[in-house]
Amino acid sequence: QVQLVESGGGLVQPGGSLTLSCAASGIALEEYAIGWFRQAPGKEREGFLCISGDGGVSYYRDDVKGRFTISKDNADNRGSLQMTGLQPSDTAVYYCASRPIWCNPFPEHYNYWGQGTQVTVSS
Fold first, then answer.
1. Which one of 29, 73, 74, 79 is most buried, counting C-beta atoms within 10 A?
2. Residuewise pLDDT in 10s, the chain (123 residues)
């Protein structure tokens, strides 16, 4: 069974940092992209960052470029999202998702999903 298990969410102060983890099983991340999505209350789920099976990185939102960094460790079969300079507008449920090889920002194109983890940025 394919599983993506997320961890690392929580409460952080404005300007702070947080790292999310996405541990995969049942698939080999050498051949799968990991996309990151977030959904704030009352808003649609948006894809903002992705790393392809071969390690190429795609940014889909200007407001995370320069603050968020995506990576994956194929040997550990784990993806990571490093977030710095967090703002209240970043508050959302964050999801990792996976599909074969190639990145795109569309939720309907992804085969597997993590359970979601809440990130709250507040003083």
1. 79
2. 999 999 999 999 999 999 999 999 999 999 999 999 999 999 999 999 999 999 999 999 999 999 999 999 999 999 999 999 999 999 999 999 999 999 999 999 999 999 999 999 999
